[in-house]
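Researcher: I'm preparing a figure for a lab meeting and need a structural model of a single chain. I don't have an experimental structure, so a prediction will have to do for now. The sequence is pasted below. Please return the structure as tokens so I can convert it later.
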Amino acid sequence: MHAAVELPGDYDLTEVPRVVRGAVILGTIESVVVVLMSIITRLTGGVVEAVIGGIVLLAGLTLVTTLPGLWTRPRTIEGIAGAAGIGLAATGVFLLFDVALLQPLGVYTNRWLQIGGGSNWWYHPVWWMVGTFIPWMGALLLAAQTARGQRTSVVGVMAWVLSATVVLAIAAILFHFPGAHWSLGTFGIAFLPGVAVAAALASLRAARA
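Model: Understood. Here is the structure written out token by token.
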């Protein structure tokens, strides 16, 4: 598989139908990932959970980070904001699935309920913020690639993000950050500052190009 993705057409594609279509697709993907992670954490544990859950988590984070930007092809703030808009609307789609199906069907294990704070009033707003933030940072990374004259590369984006995430996760564990330990949860939390650090560094490199 080729590491780079090159899309035809113009840049900064933020038409409403495109945003809505992307939100429905991404929200559905998020729902599938949550169901898979819940099944994995319910039925497995230890190394098996870490390996299989890690693959699913990484795939989900990669799609959420890069798909909105691939759809809007960001070059300026217009395309970056469009990607963030897709992320925000996608969280609304997911939360419809969540309230209508996932919660009534008892998809969540106790661990997932604890991660969600046990209350929609806490859980849903956090999902909105995270679901908007990650595509926003991903679009910044893709725009930085374009600014430097590079082909759009999902692998290139995720290499930056994962490198920063791993460094931050290890630092949190070594410095005994509250709750940090060798787990998927720590990696998932470290992904948030990791994607922000990667986007900042890539933007600085693009500005100097």
